[in-house]
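Researcher: Next sequence.
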Amino acid sequence: MTEPRISVVMPVYNREQYLKESVESILNQTFTDFEFIIVDDQSTDSSWSIIQEYANNDSRIIAVKNTEKKGCYSARNCGNRLAKSKYIAVMDSDDISLPHRLQTQFDFMEQNPEIGICGSWAKMFGDKDEIMQTLQNHEEIRDFNFFYCSMIHPSVIFRNKNLILYSENRSSAQDYDLWSRMIDKLKFANIPEVLLLYRVHNEQIGSAKKAEQDNNANLVRINNLSTIGINLTEQEKQIYLDIIDWKFSPKNKFELFISIKMLENISVVGEKLGYKQHFQHLLKNFIRNIAESAIQNKVTSLKLYFTAFRKWKIFETPRANLRYIYHCLRNLLHV
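Model: Next structure:
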């Protein structure tokens, strides 16, 4: 017998409420040449019984039950190690894959052999109703991924050439960690089409443990800086993370100078390492946001205006330039 062409890997923990919809969305795919590896991570509800029932009726399902609770990413790694196919498709036990998802992604990967990891757009449903759009080409994805997670995790498919495994030392944001580790080793892409319905509800890791997820994502962001040779002090790290979160507002000229010089340094180093237009555009927006916050806080600097702000063309209209200079002079006169 020939091996199936796609292995769908789905971890499960206490998802009896949504599990049937998720499983059936895979079983009802227009593309049928797949194995469906479902790893139950010691569920305490009826999830395992539901999995066994489906497995008894469909030979494509490989049902695995962990002997102890190991966590979502350990369960994913278990499935990835068992996968025999050319491609591995990620699936979550509360989402719904649209019927043509696997066929669309299989065709894309076959037609683009240089791509190692491919995602798609997704439509939120449940507590939110909006379309999640992602950047399409590798350069833009790489630029964006330096600051923010660039892929919708349960929409992803990747080649099963080299064993791709998640870190298991944390319980959230390990997909972002994986993309950051793989971004310079493999080519990424996103198909600009909704292939997944992404359920939003209070029981998700992202909702239930948002603080932990944010902290783990921040660790990845700081590590991304380290990989390009930028090491920050603790104060600089906090400023940088506040900038990324769009909540940094300089309290004094020292914070204003340190934030702008930090971003300029990241820009210079990033350019040397091949980070391109989208990377620089994000940095420019960060600097613009700081400049606007500085005006509101009455923390301005003519020196920065004639160096960093003019070089970056932060103030795009004559009126905006005059506004900043006016506030600089006004602050000087009040000293």
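Model: Residues 27 and 36 are 8 Å apart (CA to CA). Strands lie at 6-12, 34-40, 61-65, 87-90, 96-97, 115-126, 131-132, 157-159, 187-200.
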